[in-house]
Predict the 3D structure of the following.
Amino acid sequence: MNKTVDHNIFSAFEATAERRKDNTAVIYLGTRFSYGKIKDLVDCFAAALIDMGLKPGQKIIIYIPNSVQWVVAWLGIQKISAVCVPITPIYTPHDLKYIANDSDAEAIVCADTNFGYVTSVLSETPLKRVIVTKMADLLPWWKRYFGYLFDIIPRGKIALTDNTYSFKKLMSQFHNPSPAKPETEQNGNAVAEVLYTGGTTKFSKGVPISHNLFIVSADEQIRITDPLFAAEDNVIMGNAPLFHILGQTCGLATLLAGGTLILQPRINLDAAFDAIQRFKAKTMIGVPTLYRMILEHDRLDQYDLSSVEYWFCAGDVLPVEVGKRWKEKFAKTILQGYGATETCGGVSMCPVDIESPPKSVGRIVASKKVKIVDPATLAAVTPGEPGELLVSSEHMVTNYLKKPEETAESFVDLEGNKWYRTADIMSMDEDGNLYFVDRTVDTIKHKGYRISASEIESVLQEHPAVIGSCVVGVPDEKVGERIKAYVVLKEDIKGITGYELIKWCRQNLVPYKIPQYIEFRDMLPKSKVGKLLRREIRGEEMRRKEG
């Protein structure tokens, strides 16, 4: 793959599609799509976007589950040199409105099942065009027929207007796009997409990722398995969501290298096992929670998963106990990696041809440089000692979208280079193996997601009965951390229950951000200047757990 400046994602895919035209690119719900077919669909979609008047540089939100349509939309947006804004399909109207306004997105590709959410925020956002797809739109007619007949495929109500378009009809209308349609070329430093990530602030932050950064990072991460098999022979069971950097650099990236990506709209273990067995997947991507779920699945022994040579885990640290059970069960090691949205995924990855120490999240990849420093002074720590991990690279992200204060806190200049502050405490041994130790900021790691404690606190404090709240992560072997909220009610309020506050959170937060526990307090610990002391609450929880 050409990694020079002025290269872009679509031209990288186009070159691969030409070379691998008849080979399988995507397997979606059991249906194969060749590289040639995906390229034709992308050309159609790009022609439709141009016909709508969408221009290079404009932002387009992708708000659909993992699917072949997701891939077509992402590549089609790249082809017209617009900017993708992928988001989770479970976002509520509250989140959708914020991201549409923060990104200045002018169009959105959504599923019919969340079309109602989109229409509810149109008048309050810059969104002018809506493209609606059904999850079975690109499947063979007989699969669509039986899917709807047996109510397997979820359906939502849609209403097409002058500014609302059917994805399926667009594919038909622009089936043979005119070659005269203009194709503008983005250089490698242009922004390809904006991914939103949680953090310590109330709102998620937009991370602008350039074509160069994506191509270099993705190529590096997808080729970590070269000692096992050629990238073109790889068949990846893509369990990670495509809106997430893990799903992109370790799954979607295979389409720039000539491999095959298996996609399903949501995780269903039996369906995933069947796909691995049927299509002889060589790679599987997952977070620790997924690997634990697999080990505890009742029907695991009914499937042959022996084709998988590379089991990869990221998003959080894999519990040693899960890794040990896996090795005993499959005689294979789950290899870990560490990264962030801001670093375009992998900072470190475990090599496949050497045995990494237990708990290691790998060695630093070639495109990244790291420092381990004292978080207070940014001075280098003694080798082997823990400190905050800083990351730098040639094409690195240097800012958050419209967030100057958060940018200043997270991106620093040292020794003539820009460095990203991960806010993670790490250590490195003499062989270069990296180990996760702790977090320095108030984020919660739940099922592989980074969740802002202050975002949940803000939602709770918007409830008319609540005067104060503190949210922390409680260590849990199955999901990393569970979310617990401590709440102070107004003096004159009676009869409010934890169930009612959790119901309130469900109306304003995506499911994975909803607290599992609510504890009521008369007051919360604060510093002399009134700052909430979450560390004291976390300390209480640790002492409680230790007995």
In short: The radius of gyration is 23 Å. The domain at 443-546 is CATH 3.30.300.30 (GMP Synthetase; Chain A, domain 3).
